[in-house]
Write a structure and sequence with these properties.
heterodimer, A: alpha+beta, five-stranded mixed β-sheet, 16 helices, 35 strands, about 25% strand, globular, B: about 300 residues, alpha+beta, six-stranded antiparallel β-sheet, 7 helices, 9 strands
Chain lengths: ~700, ~300
């Protein structure tokens, strides 16, 4: 036998042995490494982030023995209210947590910021999102056209779309200090970190949470179809359209709208390329309340046919939908969940926002990018969009309370599954896991006011507040799973970014400013696109808690001299605090007004709002105020399903912190959590942070 | 046609069962490797028997000679170009000589692949897992014959649709379930334009459950496999003849039955090789070629 034959036989033997083995270990199959830290000493710190968990309800449930694991932590270490951010909004609060510093450092002050240099020169300012901005893609190196399709160099990069988004949360995240010391960090679904910050030393894995868009590049746009006669309408976060019947065949047709097709030229009317579409064919059983839904994933395995059968009231599993961009590809991979709301007499079908497929993700939503794929391979598909709960569909009344509860429970179940995976994967270092359910179920179901609920009966309000309590119990269950997995040696920190309150009355800040002569606008429809006389406008509201002066030299059409700034701010503050709700005498909608100069310290403070409005309990800014709009009356009832909120004075809605380590600090704050985590690994509080270790006594 | 297909199916099922019985002692992944080796060897043998070996040897020698001349006379452009032209020509001749053995191998190998596919394409359902079964009815003829009667195309369509709906509501909706299998209370979902009825079933115990569709006269029985065991899984009964060859280990449905086919949506089977989950067909293709190349030096077959 010659040498070649021997080698051939050896190869064959290896093949046979390889096939017979039960499967190689996951490390060798290319899993993201979490290198073991020599200096970590196998120390383990677990942080459970429960968005919006309120200390009053936690106290009540612990006292009623409904949260035994939380009670155990309280006995071992302590339970304190956790001072939240100013304002207590999630992106601001989680940025405080991430950087251990106030908004003056990280530059996130509100969900909505103002853009001082809008592209349209006729506009003074425009709204933009706070934690990331879209950057125009670079000029292509080359481009050419085939038929109607335009190709260019950026199409060669599958992640080109996500690379045009840049993280605008500044400051140094706490994980950077751990990463540089070789301490492993695993972070799941953290808000205010999209696109995910990079791990310089390769010891950090992070799945981005709140802020991750859907495939339409929005924060989540659901699509609702019905056979009822109606025109297609874009609701801003939702879309309604008709299901058309082909009377000849009896087939119903609905069209799912995807993102614009960048391979096609922009239309002269909209300035955007035509949108991608996938046609659903819907077949209804003549008697039974069931539907068969079929579609074709063009460009996948030779035009893959997909179909599923659902009954009325069923949520489907995740279903892959591919949008073919040109006849030769590529296809945009997305996934949705269908919900059959009604079959007879009219068909009503809800389609979730187009999420990315974790195992075939068309955007970079994790660090390293393959981390999301590994999670998807281990636990199956999951909501990748930041706001997974379909609160917009509830807001626009396309689904009801019970349907929202079921969908939110699906999100929570997915999170629990991901937590199990995270625990299985976790060896040492820091594990951070985020739950959105405590926040987004509370926004809809929380109600502990003595006033009647805007649209629920007292019994229903109580029943649905019970849903929030059940979610809290499940958080206790999650903590129990962690304790069972990690034992008593690990340090546990359970924390929330803020608490909760009822949202009964809404305050129209811009309407108040107009009524009091600070703002000159016809208010149709808002500050920016209505007739606003900026030369007579001295202040305007934009965002949930933000008030800006129209300052000369800063705003493009500024009217207030910088020298008049302080006096004007004092005047507005005094008048806002003195304002009484006309319908409820002696009720002041505004409890605190914060001056940025007093509360924000850091290089980004200069871009912050001039005043941050701290609303009183039961109040919040109006729905119109957030985007610079106006209301008919300054104060009115909130009649939306979103009937609870936390964007009020920060001292009314503290978060929580529980730990099995003794919490020495009497008044811990969100900015203290990051220094506390670092201290557990022997890292002293860095200069970039303003908090302190809550487990250590205050040094004299 | 049906009788011929049944005969082929019966024969191949028997052969498949016998072949897999020989490798039943090893895991499905190892069995796939062994089968790949056997197929590689078999392909090589058939190639040797059915191809013109002397012509292939001659062509390969010609290619070697021209390759050699490109190396020897690399300074002479005319010779190099001529040699390259000849290499391409002889490569085409080699492909022509491959046609006959490939055509001869195509039919038996499709049948062999179908038998392997029956075992590796799908896995059985787990207890409690959703089982979707789709019954496709035969097209319904219209009473309004557009040739003899004056009727518009759309009238014929509506009439066909109504008749299909009647058929679906009748025989298309009948399913007799075995013990231990339950169906969704809203089943079936009948899609009149498609002529299909879909059931969503769940089984609570392992074993082969026989579902009985249609009426007593034309009952069509289909097995559903629940459990973990490795074995043949037929996802289709009836249907197009080519689909039946590829996906079905089942006999034909009687001509008199209104049912055209019954499809069971089994989950795909995963057979990881070296820890990588590659489609069984790719594994088989790659490994059989690898093994054929390994065995080739011992057989003196020219390829």
């Amino acid at each position: 036998m010659n040498r070649t034959c021997k080698l051939n036989l050896l190869s064959a033997l290896l093949v046979i042995l390889g096939a017979g083995s039960p499967g190689c270990d996951r490390e060798s199959s290319g899993r993201t490494p979490v290198p073991r830290a020599k200096n970590a000493g196998h120390k383990r710190v677990l942080v459970l982030g429960c968005d919006g968990m309120d200390p009053r309800l936690v106290r009540k449930l612990i006292d009623e023995n409904r949260m035994p694991n939380f009670a155990k932590l309280e006995q071992q270490g302590g339970f304190r209210p956790l001072e939240t951010s100013i304002p207590p909004q999630s992106p601001v609060a989680w940025s405080n947590f991430i950087t251990g510093a106030n908004p003056g450092v990280h530059g996130v002050y509100d969900f909505i910021h103002r853009d001082l240099a809008p592209a349209d020169p006729h506009l003074n300012v425009t709204p933009r999102t706070s934690t990331s901005i879209d950057v125009p893609p670079p000029e292509p190196l080359f481009e050419f056209q085939v038929s109607k399709y335009q190709f260019n160099s950026s199409h060669l990069n599958p992640f080109a779309a996500s690379q045009t988004t840049t993280l605008t949360r500044y400051g140094v995240p706490f994980w950077n200090y751990l990463d540089e010391r070789g301490i492993p960090i695993q972070i799941y679904k953290i808000p205010a970190n999209y696109p995910p910050s990079e791990s310089e030393h390769g010891h950090m894995c992070c799945l981005a949470g709140m802020g991750v868009p859907d495939a339409l590049a929005t924060l989540g746009t659901y699509q609702h179809f019905s056979t009822e006669p109606r025109a297609a309408v874009d609701l801003g976060g939702g879309r309604r359209d008709r299901i058309v019947k082909d009377f000849k065949t009896g087939t119903y047709i609905a069209t799912i709208i995807g993102p614009p097709n960048e391979f096609l030229p922009a239309s002269s009317r909209t300035g955007l390329p035509p949108k991608l579409e996938v046609e659903l064919r819907i077949y209804r059983d003549p008697e039974n309340p069931s539907l068969k839904i079929a579609w074709i994933n063009e460009g996948v395995a030779g035009n893959e046919s997909r179909e599923l059968v659902l009954n009325e009231g069923d949520w489907s599993d995740w279903q892959e939908i591919y949008f073919l961009k040109t006849p030769v590809g590529p296809s945009l991979p997305t996934m949705v969940r269908f919900y059959v709301q009604q079959v007879h007499p009219e068909i009503k079908l809800y389609v979730s926002p187009l999420n990315f497929i974790p195992t075939n993700c068309a955007a970079v939503i994790s660090e390293p990018p393959k981390f999301v794929k590994e999670i998807g391979e281990a636990i199956g598909p999951f909501y990748t969009q930041g706001f997974a709960e379909t609160f917009r569909a509830r807001h626009f009344k396309d689904i009801d309370d019970e349907e929202y509860r079921k969908q939110a429970d699906i999100v929570l179940d997915e999170s629990m599954k991901m937590l199990d995976y995270a625990l299985e994967r976790y060896v040492d270092g820091v594990l951070f896991f985020y739950f959105s359910s405590t926040d987004l179920q509370s926004h809809i179901f929380w109600w502990d006011s003595t006033y009647p609920h805007p649209f629920r009966s007292e019994a229903d309000a109580r029943k649905y507040h019970g849903v929030v309590e059940r979610v809290y119990e499940r958080m206790d269950e999650a903590l129990g799973r962690c304790m069972a997995s990690l034992g008593d040696d690990a340090a546990y920190i359970v924390m929330s970014d803020h608490g909760f309150g009822n949202f009964r009355r809404q305050f129209g800040l811009n309407s108040w400013l107009r009524e009091n002569g600070y703002l000159d606008s016809d208010g149709k429809p808002d500050l920016f696109f209505g007739k606003t006389d900026w030369s007579k406008t001295r202040a305007y509201g934009l965002g949930i808690n933000s008030l800006y002066l129209n300052l000369k030299g800063r705003e493009r059409m500024g009217s207030v001299e910088p020298g008049d700034r302080d006096a004007l701010l004092d005047e507005i503050t005094a008048r806002l605090l003195a304002y009484e709700d006309p319908s409820y005498p002696d009720s002041h909608p505004i409890a605190r007004v914060y001056r940025r100069d007093e509360f924000y310290k850091g290089p980004e403070a200069i871009n912050a709002p001039d005043l941050i409005i701290g609303y009183n309990r039961d109040y919040r800014s109006s729905w119109q105020t957030g985007m610079g709009g106006f209301d008919r009356t300054v104060v009115s009832d909130n009649r939306e399903a979103w009937s609870a909120d936390h964007c009020i004075a920060h001292d009314f809605v503290p978060g929580i912190v529980l730990s099995n380590r003794r919490i020495v600090s009497e008044a811990p704050a969100l900015i203290d959590v990051a220094p506390t985590i670092l201290a557990e690994f022997g890292i002293s509080t860095p200069a970039s942070m303003q908090g302190r270790n809550m487990f250590a006594p205050l040094s004299p | 046609m049906n009788a011929a297909l049944d005969m082929i199916t019966r024969g191949m099922n028997a052969l498949g069962a016998a072949a897999f019985a020989l490798v039943s002692f090893c895991s499905p992944a190892v069995a796939l490797v062994v089968i790949s080796a056997l197929i590689g060897w078999l392909m090589l043998l058939i190639w040797g028997w059915t191809s013109n070996q002397s012509a292939i040897k001659d062509v390969r020698n010609q290619i070697s000679a021209h390759l050699l001349s490109t190396r020897l006379f690399k300074d002479n452009l005319a010779v190099t170009f001529r040699a390259q032209r000849m290499i391409i020509w002889h490569a085409l001749r080699l492909m022509l000589h491959s046609l006959r053995p490939m055509v001869i191998m195509a039919v038996p190998f499709v049948l062999i692949m179908a038998q392997i596919g029956l075992r590796y394409q799908f896995r059985p359902f787990k207890p409690g897992e959703l089982i979707r079964v789709t019954v496709q009815l035969k097209p319904v003829a219209s009473a309004a014959d557009p040739i003899t009667r004056e009727a518009t195309a759309s009238t014929v369509d509506y009439e066909k649709r109504d008749r299909m709906q009647a058929a679906l509501m009748g025989v298309g909706s009948r399913l007799k379930l075995p013990a231990g299998v339950v169906h969704d209370p809203h089943d079936p979902c009948r899609a009149v334009p498609l002529g299909t009825a879909d059931w969503r079933l769940r089984a609570d115990s392992v074993g082969e459950k026989i579902l009985e569709f249609g009426d007593a006269v034309n009952a069509v029985r289909v097995p559903v496999v629940i459990g973990e065991e490795f074995g043949p899984i037929s996802s289709l009964r009836g249907g197009h003849w080519f689909d039946r060859l590829l996906y079905s280990g089942e006999m034909s449905i009687a001509e008199s039955s209104p049912i055209e086919s019954i499809r069971i949506a089994y989950p795909p089977r995963s057979t990881p090789i070296f820890g990588y989950d590659v489609h069984w067909l790719v594994t088989l293709f790659v490994l059989s070629i690898v093994f054929a190349l390994i065995i080739k030096p011992f057989t003196r077959v020219q390829m």
